[in-house]
Amino acid sequence: MPAPGTGQVAIVGMAAVLPAAADISSYWRNLVDGIDAITDVPPHRWDEEFYDPEQAHRPDRLYCRRGGFVDEHATFEPLRYGVMPASIAEIEPDQLISLEVAAAAIDDAGGADRLPAGDRVGVILGRGGILSPAQARYAQRVRMSSQVIQILKDLMPDLDQDRLDLVRRKFDERLGPHQPEGTIGLVPNLAASRVANRLDLRGPAYTLDAACASSLIAVDQGIAELVNGRLDAVLAGGVHHVHDISFWSVFSQLRALSRRGEIRPFDSGADGLLIGEGTGMVVLKRYADAQRDGDRVYAVIRGSGVSSDGRSASMFNPAVAGQVLAIRRAWAAAGLDPTAPDALGMLEAHGTGTPTGDAAELTTLAEVFGPYRGGPRPVIGSVKSMIGHTMPAAGIAGLIKAVLAVHRGVLLPTLHCETPRAEMAGTRFAPIPTARPWECDGPRRAGVNAFGFGGINAHLIVEQAPEQVGAAPAPAFAAGPAAGRPAPAPPGAAGAAVAVDEPDQVLWLAAAGPAGLAELLAADDPTVRRLGVERARGEQPADGTERARLGIVGPTDRLLAVARRAVARGWPGAVAGTSGSAPSRCSPAMGSSPSSSPDWRPSSLRVPPTWPVTSACRTGRGPPPTWAGTAPA
């Protein structure tokens, strides 16, 4: 079995914003704990009258209002990236979130200084060509206002021009403020181009639309750029934050949404999907280059395969033959036999929870990987059961899940698969209700599926980095919930929950006052990290004069920069701390407190001057939200 060589690609950085997950750390915790992130549609997204199951035959009425949303995590720092705050309302949310996630992925890969020269770095993002909220508002501003005026003229000819002008003005006010310079933000390709522009990446930067397979095909395109030597690093992934009511209407009219409000991949009682939103990206390099540069390698991509269904019974229904072709192409590219007993330990499936789609995928898996022949069953799962179907970003959400599982040595659960479909018995796979250690003799290996509407299919194979094979898994396992969190029990779950804890680096800084903290933070990043670690280890014991304290969990370059700004500007109420508790091991966070307690420890940070970038679809209720907090000077 060939080992990864110069033709294989390494994943050296990752980042995501997904339902109930502001970052990779929280996403990982949710995956391990089996968190169902599905909620009702947030109030500001729609007018309530859109939800009317009794009238769902109408295109302007829906029978489902459950989905996966990122409202509390979708924030943006405009001045950090040189974006004028006045233009934010006219820019598509996915462009701003993509920029934040791209920067976080680069941080996760070691920071911009570890990237190759900018002209050797590309950006390839899967993004759907769907009418978005900002585009819908602009179309209403340009076209619908004139139509409304004309209808009023026809129905009420006695209205004078002043009254008609008032109607037009009120109509425009309901759509929110308009900045002419912001209209350029409606161009869909800017989801990738804005990343390249603001981060000074001068390789190819473009979006592609392959429906639900978009983000895996973006990764496939990035692999080709690296293997062919045209680029030395690629940011690849997908983005989906299109929750305009017209998008939901399409799925409601198709009766593709779950009436019970649950997405149940491969369950015999599944009745449809739920729409989710999110953005995810990976940083790709040639494996040999990653070794040379001393990069942390999450996993290597052994093979990638893409296909279309060709002529089939219907271009709107999945075709097994097309899916089989994509998967076999990936395994042939990897030089691996998918029917071998140790071929893989995990399959992250497309798994939409639609009866037709799930049945076709299970039939595909039986044909490619063969039936069960004894021994441990590879685990099958679909993260859509937790976050919904993130459409063009679905593949990258599944890929990041699989890569984390391979890297940390954990097999992950799928929710709501209480009674698997009959087709599951013909495969070698089985779902699991709770996380468990991934034990195997060789390298951990997983497959990832993404099958797009219209018949486009993609499959990737990810494998444990060669230098990690044989090493102990990264996480530590313990029975029971992680500290401070109850262990959720998905339906059908049995046995104790598994808590996964991988210690973060923690920096603690203390000084007599804010000016002293600012002086400590004025040093370069390595010095700040050294001082913070020494204090965290107790090598610099506290004294009674240190009334200003700062804790940072997971001190990336970006978070240190945020800490410097927070301390320098003295944002009141921006940060909160607790006394006498260890720092949370969750997402990278900071805490600051004027407490004089010598055993104070940081807990959490809210950085206020950020922009909420989720869009609303409201009629007659005013514009979408504006600033959250005070605009920075």
UniProtKB/TrEMBL annotation:
Superkingdom of source: Bacteria
Q: Which residues form the Ketosynthase family 3 (KS3) domain?
A: 6-464
Q: Which UniProt keywords apply?
A: Phosphopantetheine, Phosphoprotein, Transferase
Q: Known SUPFAM superfamilies for this protein? A: Thiolase-like
GO MF term set: 3-oxoacyl-[acyl-carrier-protein] synthase activity; fatty acid synthase activity
Segments of this protein annotated with the region Disordered: 573-633
Where along the chain is composition biased (Low complexity)?
584-606
What the entry lists under PROSITE patterns is as follows:
KS3_1 (PS00606), KS3_2 (PS52004)
Q: What is one process in the GO biological process aspect for this record?
A: fatty acid biosynthetic process
Pfam entry (one): ketoacyl-synt
Give the similarity note. Belongs to the thiolase-like superfamily. Beta-ketoacyl-ACP synthases family.
Q: What is this protein called?
A: Ketosynthase family 3 (KS3) domain-containing protein
Instruction: State the organism's lineage.
Output: Bacteria, Bacillati, Actinomycetota, Actinomycetes, Micromonosporales
